[in-house]
Each structure stands twice: as structure tokens, then as C-alpha cells.
Amino acid sequence: MYSLTFRDYWKCAHSLSGEIFGPAQLMHVITFEVDVTYLTDELDEHNLIVDFGGAQSSLQEILRPMEFKNLDELPEFQGVNTTTEFLCRYLHEKISERVAAIFSGTLRVTLRESPVAWATYEAPVPAAVRTPGPAGRRRRAAGPARQVP
Predict the structure, then answer these.
(1) Cβ distance 36 to 107 under 8 Å?
(2) How many CB atoms are closer than 10 A to CB 32?
(3) Position 131 confidence tier, pLDDT thresholds 50, 70, 90
(4) What domains appear along the chain, each with residue ranges and CATH number?
(5) Could you report the per-residue pLDDT of 56-90, keeping only the tens digit for each?
(6) Which residues contact 67 (CB under 8 A, 6 or more apart)?
(7) Taking a C-beta distance cutoff of 8 angstroms, is the pair 15, 26 a contact?
(8) How far apart are the first and last CA of the chain?
(9) Of 40, 53, 64, 145, whose CB has the highest number of CB atoms within 10 Å?
(10) What's the rounded Cα separation, in Å, for the pair 62 and 67?
């Protein structure tokens, strides 16, 4: 199994509803460290796991709109407890949508909220039919995993 990990971070604020969250029910600021790991059994036709630039820019484009924002005020999070676990899956889904055309395999998203606490969500990137794009980028269609020549 091959893997490639990108790391970034983002600062935001949020509050969590429910007594189980204790003081985190109050608005608080958090800096999340984000690790996105691409896992695959085979390298692509260029001997890559995923296009580095495409994968890195996808993560940055997803994080940018949440940077220095109160997550409680963003429309996509209305009425949602934005726990670390929830945000892992949210990021996985958003990243998967963006990289489905250039990656076939499993994606692992880890959010570290402190040096002693983090959460992870891992699942395959769903197969999707894509129209041809820039040369050199992998295309996938629904069905069996890609074949390496």
C-alpha cells in the first residue's frame, strides 16, 4: 500500500450544543491541524499516488472559506455540532468531490485539535465518471479499480 500525506491547518471558532460538551458549549477558537492521506495499492501511469499540486490545492480551496470564520454562522453547518469527528467526514466528502478525477483509492482525514486529541475518518473516494481534462491527469469511471500497464 502506498500513501502520501499533505498537512495544513486552519483557525476557526465554534460552539457545541449539549451538556456533554461542558465549557465547549461556549464560543471558542480552535486551530485544527489537518492531515489528508491518500492510500492506494498501485501507482498511476506516472508512478504517482496522486497529482501533488491538484491534491494540495484542493485542500487549500476547501479550508480557505472556513479560515477565521465562526462555523456556527456558515450555512452548511446550521444546526450541526461541528465536532472534530464530524469535520473529518465533512472534509473527506469535500476533498473526495474535488479529487475523484485524479485519484483512485482511499482517503484518510485526520484533524488534530490539540497535541493530545485528534480524530480520523477514512473511506474510499467514490468512483465517478469525469469528462476528459488537462493532459496527464487520471480519469476514472464507475467500475473496477484502475489497471497499471
Answers:
(1) yes
(2) 21
(3) very low
(4) 2-124 (3.30.479.10)
(5) 999 999 999 999 999 999 999 999 999 999 999 99
(6) 10, 11, 12
(7) yes
(8) 18
(9) 40
(10) 10
